[in-house]
Design a protein that fits this description.
PvuII Endonuclease, Chain A; about 160 residues; three-stranded antiparallel β-sheet
Length: about 160
């Protein structure tokens, strides 16, 4: 896990993209997560050293051609290694090679690059949760069908 300071340039670029995007279909936060999502891409790109390419299927292209979809959550606390990362079940068809997981502090001053996982292995290794299930590890009521994996299971690099 790596902590990354969010620069004013990263924040400005993300604000512009968030405003242009508006509300996404199937958005759990009804568009309110756009800014945090774009900041997650900025953080992931800083660590993975790729090129940001916003598409439905992936967010970054790395130098070797690998396509990475970045999954970002907002947080009020420093992430612990037993916290979980999620991929919504309706996103399993995305044409990416890796998932990357990021947390952004709610005051938008920093974020955490949590790690990556190869897409083809993620769904085999992650725990499936149905909407309404109670996650036994944290008593969280799942808002949408998803696949969860603990931060300590992620890889530090591709």
């Amino acid at each position: 896990m790596k902590i990354v300071a969010i620069s004013s340039e990263m924040l400005d670029r993300s604000k512009v993209k968030a405003n242009e995007l508006g509300k996404l279909n199937n958005s759990i936060l009804k568009g309110d997560g756009n800014l945090v999502g774009f900041l997650g891409e900025e953080i992931a790109n800083l660590v993975l050293k790729g090129t940001i390419k916003n598409s439905y299927d992936y967010d970054l292209i790395l130098e070797d051609g690998s396509k990475v979809d970045v999954k970002t959550k907002r947080t009020t606390v420093v992430p612990k290694d037993f916290y979980e990362c999620s991929v919504a079940a309706y996103n399993t068809k995305q044409k990416c090679d890796y998932y990357c997981f990021v947390r952004v502090k709610d005051d938008l001053t920093c974020g955490w690059f949590l790690g990556v996982y190869k897409k083809e292995d993620y769904f085999k290794d992650a725990m499936f949760m149905k909407q309404g299930d109670i996650d036994p590890s944290n008593n969280f009521k799942v808002k949408a069908d998803c696949y969860n994996m603990k931060i300590n299971q992620l890889k530090e690099e591709i």
